Amino acid sequence: MTATTGAPAADSSETGRTARVFGGLSLALALWTGLYLSVEPLSRFVAFRALGLAPGSRLGAATAFFLYEAPKVLLLLALVVFGVGIVRSFFTPERTRAILAGKRESAGNVLAALLGVVTPFCSCSAVPLFLGFVEVGIPLGVTLSFLISAPMVNEVALVLLFGLFGWKVAALYLVTGLAVAIAAGWVLGRLRLERWVEGWVYESMKQDASFEPERLGLAGRVERGVEAVREIVGKVWPYVLAGIAVGAGIHGYVPEGLMAGIMGKQAWWSVPLAVLVGIPMYSNAAGIIPVVQALLGKGAALGTVLAFMMSVIALSLPEMVILRKVLRPQLIATFVGIVAIGILAVGWLFNAVL
Fold it and tell me: What digits encode the pLDDT tens for the residues 119-133?
């Protein structure tokens, strides 16, 4: 009588599970594609046929903009968050800390900014991430490069910019955003501002960068992607719709050329004004990009709009309030000032050359 083992059965079960995952993903992608392609004709049908609005009217233009952009942006957001949720299963905060631990400044600033693009981050996690980085001895400037890059040059912003404006604008935002994060973090590190970190932070330091790696198969990583969609899209969709509503109002009711006078290339003060207006606003990339789209459509300059978007995402007041738990006002003011200078430089540069 021949002895048998459970290994072949286990391998067969895993293969079957992988096949089912691939089948489900293929079906979901086909459904997503069909919905995405039907957004434009359905939005026009609802606005101009079902609701009977005149295509040339302000209300008709604003309504059609909202009905088109809302499902389009939400569909793009769901797709990119799902994909990045899978990518993030390889880059947990613990793994990020382990990668950055022991890295010197300069190289550490670059690596931290790059990791910020794919690592989970929101304003509410600023303090835990800051504490975790400090505890394993990551330099302050490197930590701040990460805290600038993570919200500003995030995957949602890049994919939505790509979907709405094309790869050139998305690449432009990626390069300039990383440059601001790297340069600002490096300058802040050179200033040796550790004295302006709250004292209790360094009292809890521990030189332990160890972490327990997760072992996830394809199905587990897909589950992480679905969880990311449920968590992130579930939280940000009201901001997305609010941003699209603002964009629709600009699109339908702001006269052509008005934004060119206020946010155009000619006035040097348009970029500082855009940054000052953006800082008090609270939004995320998904919510602010429809506003950016509407501003560009009304004649605003690309450099000015990029500066506005960066200030809204990277210098939001809620994040500064949260960081006050670990940073003293002098360091927060220096942080805001240096990042703002970098954003101003980006705006003026691209207004000059484009």
Answer: 656 555 566 677 777
